[in-house]
Amino acid sequence: MSLTSVLVANRGEIARRVFRTARSMGLRCVAVYVDADAGSPHVTDADEAVRLPDGGYLDAEAVVAAALATGADAVHPGYGFLAENAGFAEAVEAAGLVWVGPTAEVVRTMGDKLAAKEAAVAAGVPTLPSSDDPTDGEEVGYPLLVKAAAGGGGKGMHLVESAADLDEAVTSAQREALGAFGDDRVFLERYVPRSRHLEIQVLGDAHGNLVHLGERECSIQRRHQKVLEESPSPFADETLRSAMCDAALRLADGIGYRSAGTVEFLVDDATGEFFFLEVNTRLQVEHPVTEEVTGIDLVREQLRVATGEPLGWTQDDLATSGHAIEARLYAEDADQGFLPATGTLHAFVPADDPAVRWDAGVAAGSHVGVDFDPMLAKVVARGPTRAEAAGRLALALERSHLGGVTTNRDFLVATLRHEAFLAGDTTTDFIERHAPSTPRTGDDLARAAVAVAMWLLRSNRAEAGVLAHLPAVWRNARLPDERVVLTHGDEAHEVGYRAQRDGSFTVNGASTARIHDWSPDGIDVEVDGRRWAGRVTRSGNDLWVQVPSGTVAFSVAPRFTVPGSEDVNGGLVAPMPGVVLEVRAAAGDRVEAGQTLVVMEAMKMEQHIAAPEDGTIAEVLVAVGEQVEKGTALMVLEPDDGETDGSEA
User: Fold this and answer.
1) CA–CA distance, 403 with 420 (Å, rounded to integer)
2) Would you call 353 exposed, middle or buried from its count of C-beta atoms within 10 A (0-12, 13-18, 19+)?
3) Who contacts 260 (Cβ-Cβ below 8 Å, separation ≥6)?
4) Cα–Cα dist 101/151, whole Å
5) What average pLDDT does the segment 390-416 reach?
6) Residue 562's pLDDT band (boundaries 50, 70, 90)?
7) Cα Rg for the chain, rounded, in angstroms?
8) Distance CA 235, CA 238 (A)
């Protein structure tokens, strides 16, 4: 069987990644999209694209119809959405199309986490204590995880420390699972606090050939979602590696697995014991690290297997070389509990050097909304050693110009350079234990502010229509310095500068700056003897300047305060943009500190906004179902001392 074209039933970076391999194999590529993605790069990357109706990416019937209408031979589901939907796999094949993935029967069995656990037990693979009764917390034991039975990726997953928190965790998990997977079933599973998340990549064909491609470690996570992944694991020795690979192959063989898949394990950091978690019957987000160390294109193998071709090689033919690390670049604020962020990505320029792999779903000008997962790109570095791969990835992230949307870039760099990470101390509680951060010093921000002021100076001169021939900041009398006030978060940086005869500038009466080169999108500047060239992007009063440690955002402060822009006194505000799911208090209600008042959802993640202290609700400003922006006042709380509190909960 041969293919001529493939439709990818997904969006963003995974659609573009599949297109890249499919096109290299001579296949025409078809995309699908919803209105929110009309400007997405994956739409214009495709040879042809079809708009989906209101059901969106989950509308299996519409996706199959799009494939038939465009003459596609095959459907590749990517990951998420319909990738683990057995009914979709059956619909694709019933329409006479090639399904790029394992059989619908395997998808159905492994997509049900409880059935998957039964298959693991049958294959002799160790499992954690669990229960499909969501009230059975005492039997499972605390701490435990409430998990969605029909999906993964951290959706519908909640950590419960004690019986008092179980009911609310189950309710939230069921609601999230229903929204993400259309199935609200949950189960309980024992939680191992100091653990590692290791997984084995398997690959099989329809001729009985089955191999593993080694392990990946994906332990560094927030909200039970992976942030950094690598291969090989810095923890696994040959004994553990061999045992896990053998267990993965036994399970895959027992269920008749074909195509690319992943068997995930939890490893107790103290004892080295491993336990089965789940089988992902699709391509994983982190698959590039395996590709980088093995040299095998997993999408190509998926397409070959789907057309009935044998693998053509055996386990003995496989070898790994070097070390690869992947970072997930998210639109989120790591300093605010990794809350998702939205906005327009005004600047998105990956660094050319050092050379790393960017699998991006966005481009400069892309809008990041609340409809989808906040991942912008996967960035992958390979090196002969783990330390070199980490350093290369950190530097590539640092040297990339990103602006307009808050990202976790600085957090990723801090993690990759953290001594605990470099030592291989990468358990699932890494973020809680180490809280990696590299806050910029006041001097760093001051230099960046001077660079922006110098760029604005030259920009204004370039746009001048009158007397543009005069030297910058030319004066025919002794007048005060030119001044600009720039804000960075809550900080204000006032930059006063005066031109000198040698072309330099005296800044704030103490520093010296010199412009070596200027362009509409960059500046080569020297501040107190330290020189660098960086990109600059401007949108209205907002500017982003590239400095040696990354990108710094500034806004030109308005000279006057806009009436009505003051904060709501005593207002509990939305910590992220999203939809109001629940309002749990009314005007006049007495509330206690820590009591949940509002539940919001954005990007399939729930956030509970709690009362910061005891008091009385003076006013409720939102309603269930309302879409709100970050910073929107939700309620007004009058504390017991009679004074309103403007803190954000």
Assistant:
1) 29
2) exposed
3) 201, 202, 203, 282, 283, 287, 298, 301, 302
4) 17
5) 97
6) very low
7) 27
8) 10
Peptide linkage before 143 cis (omega within 30 of 0):
yes
Cα 424 to the chain's mean position, in Å?
22
Q: In what order do the strands lie in the sheet with 590-591?
A: 571-573, 633-639, 615-620, 590-591
- The three state secondary structure string of 25-68 is CCCEEEEEECHHHCCCHHHHHCCEEEECCCCHHHCHHHHHHHHH
DSSP 353: S
Give yes or no for residue 564 having a pLDDT over 80. no
Spatial contact of 402 and 348, defined as CB atoms under 8 Å apart: yes
Domains and CATH numbers, the chain: 5-100 (3.40.50.20), 129-190 (3.30.1490.20), 195-434 (3.30.470.20), 442-556 (3.30.700.30), 571-639 (2.40.50.100)
Paired tokens of 224: 């039970």
Q: Which residue, among 361, 280, 298, has the nearest Cα to 14 in the 3D structure?
A: 361
E strand or H helix that includes residue 84: none
Residue 292, both tokens:
């980088």
Q: Copy the structure tokens of residue 486.
A: 């720039």
**Tokens at 37, concatenated:** 């993605």
Burial (Cβ within 10 Å: 0-12, 13-18, ≥19) of residue 522: middle
CA–CA distance, 416 with 397 (Å, rounded to integer): 10
Please confirm whether the linkage preceding 354 is cis (ω < 30° from 0).
yes
Q: How far is CA 413 from the centre of its chain?
A: 14
Give the torsion through C-alpha atoms of 336, 342, 347, 348, to 10 deg.
90
Is the peptide bond between 232 and the residue preceding it cis, with omega within 30 degrees of 0?
Answer: yes
Rounded to whole angstroms, the Cα distance separating 345 from 360 reads 13
Query: What's the pLDDT score for residue 477?
Result: 47
Q: Which of 395, 341, 347 is nearest to 537 (CA)?
A: 347
DSSP state for residue 481 in the 8-state scheme = P
**Would you say residue 646 has pLDDT above 50?**
no
- The enclosing H or E element of 89 equals helix 86-94
pLDDT in tens, 482-523: 999 999 988 999 999 999 999 999 999 999 999 999 999 999
Q: Would you say how long the chain is, in residues? A: 649
φ, ψ of residue 43 to 5 degrees: the values are -70, -45
Nearest to 549 by CA among 397, 433, 408: 397
Question: Would you state the structure tokens that stand for residue 68, as one six-digit string?
Answer: 């038939």
- Give per-residue pLDDT as tens, 249-294: 999 999 999 999 999 999 999 999 999 999 999 999 999 999 999 9
- Measure the N-to-C terminal CA separation of the chain; round to a whole number of Å: 58
pTM: 0.85
Nearest-angstrom CA–CA distance, 100 and 299: 9
pLDDT of residue 473 exceeding 60, the answer is no
Residues near 477 by beta carbon (within 8 Å), at least 6 away in sequence: none
Q: What is the pLDDT of residues 570-615, one digit of tens each?
A: 568 888 888 899 999 999 999 988 889 999 887 667 788 888 889 9
Does pLDDT of 569 surpass 90?
no
